[in-house]
């Protein structure tokens, strides 16, 4: 019995779960740029792991977050309206 690297790829299953849970995928695998992950794709190299804070003046609540770049294929596709 022989196996290829493709036998162990879980990209499509990860995409399906992310779409079911409506969340982005965080990975260093650039294959996710081509998948239609509705919640988007975050390349883990783009995450700034130094927490930031945001104070919402209207409620007085403070939120902490990590800055990152999120890629959404629909946003990219929308740049080319002539393509269906």
Automatic annotation (TrEMBL):
InterPro entries: Asteroid (IPR026832), PIN-like_dom_sf (IPR029060). Belongs to the asteroid family. It comes from the Eukaryota. It comes from Octopus vulgaris (Common octopus). This is Protein asteroid homolog 1-like.
């Amino acid at each position: 019995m022989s196996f290829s690297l493709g036998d162990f790829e879980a990209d499509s299953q990860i995409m399906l779960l992310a779409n079911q849970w409506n969340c982005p995928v965080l990975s260093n695998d650039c294959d996710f740029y081509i998948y239609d992950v509705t919640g988007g794709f975050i390349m883990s190299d783009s995450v700034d792991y130094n927490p930031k804070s945001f104070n919402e003046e209207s409620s007085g609540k403070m939120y902490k977050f990590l800055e990152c770049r999120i890629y959404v294929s629909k946003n990219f596709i929308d740049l080319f309206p002539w393509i269906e």
